[in-house]
Each structure stands twice: as C-alpha cells, then as structure tokens.
C-alpha cells in the first residue's frame, strides 16, 4: 500500500508554518489524537532526537517513540517510529506560494507493522485516513487565526 497523502494551503509564510507544524511539542495543539509529547534526554529537537507521543487510538491510549530522521527548515521534516507493534512514518513538506506569503503543506503518513502489528496496520491506516484531515484543518485554522 502507498502512504496516506494530504495537501493543504495555509495563508502564512513557509517559515511560520514549518516552525509550528514540525515541532513535536505543538502536535497536541493541532493533531486531534495526540494527548502528550515528551522529548527524551536534554538534546532538544534536532536530527536524531527522539520523542515519545501518547495518542488516543479508538478508546485506548498508546505511547510510541519516534526519531527525527529529516529536519530541513523551512521545507521538510520527517520522523519514524522506532518501537512498538505499529510504527508510523510521517513527513511534512512545506512549499512557498505567492512569493512566500502563503504555503502548500503536504503530509505523508505510513505505518510499518511488527509482530502482531502487521495484522493491525490496515485498521490503523483506516483510522488515520479518517482522522488526519481533521488535524490538517485544525493546523490551518490555528496558523491562520494567529497570523
């Protein structure tokens, strides 16, 4: 299966969109299923940093650790899950529009199953496909309201 992909346009410059959307500490503010994010260690956000995300998946809370695998401000951010039966692979690409006054944001999300997680990936993909657009609209609303 191919990754879930969604694109939105936001009336804010790419640097503003990238700084906010790619900061895991802001994920609970715009991703509807994220309850909490914590960075491991004192290294902060940089390539190779790891963070733990607690998400509500259906009626349950799940915690997973992700590692930042790409961080190219203000254009591309990616993180991959490193533990658990279902590991997300997510990226955010930000492109300038209208001479850099607006942005086009493309989100890509995929999942890798390990052990019992292999059988659960199709269901998780369906949940993500339903929930991701709401998160992306929420991101757009937050950024445009705080312009």
* Count of separate structural domains: 1
Helix content: 25-40%
Number of strands: 7
So what's the overall shape? globular
Radius of gyration: 15 Å
- The CATH homologous superfamily is called START domain
Q: What is the H/E order? A: EHHEEEEEEH
Can you describe this structure in just a few lines?
The chain is of the alpha+beta class and 147 residues long.
Plain-language structure description:
The protein is an alpha+beta fold. The protein has a single domain (4-145), classed as Alpha-D-Glucose-1,6-Bisphosphate, Chain A, domain 4 (2-Layer Sandwich), CATH 3.30.530.20. Helices cover 28% and strands 44% of the residues. The protein is built from three helices and seven strands. The protein has helices spanning 14-21, 27-30, 117-145; strands at 4-10, 34-39, 50-57, 60-72, 76-81, 86-97, 102-113. A seven-stranded antiparallel sheet has the order 1-7-6-5-4-3-2. The longest helix has 29 residues, at 117-145. The radius of gyration is 15 Å and the shape is globular. The termini are far apart.
